[in-house]
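Because discrete structure vocabularies remain unfamiliar, it helps to consider an illustrative case, giving the amino acid sequence and backbone structure tokens:
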Amino acid sequence: MEIYNFSKNIGKKISKFDSDFVLSRIIQTGEMQTNVGCMYLEENGIIGFHQAVVPQLLLVLNGEGYVRGEKEEYAKVQSGDAVFWEKDEWHETKTDTGLTAIVIESEQLNPSSFMPLKK
């Protein structure tokens, strides 16, 4: 058995797109590349407005915040919510109080196969 660490203190500070969060990389797969990481947003943290390079799934673990697509209409998200953006879709995530999320990026994401839409 091996035990690994993906805590905030080993992550990398991200400021691209006027962002303010820490990303701890977890894994990257081979041929059909999939990236998995953990994002730590402190109070007033933000993942700045940018285009998704590949389909992206944001799984909120702790805290709460707001997400948006191309329009400047924010939706509230909290622990247990999963947000999906298609390739090339503009998006942003921000929080007033702090938020921790797992992000999965892959050409082969299809969250509707397993999760129901939030009502």
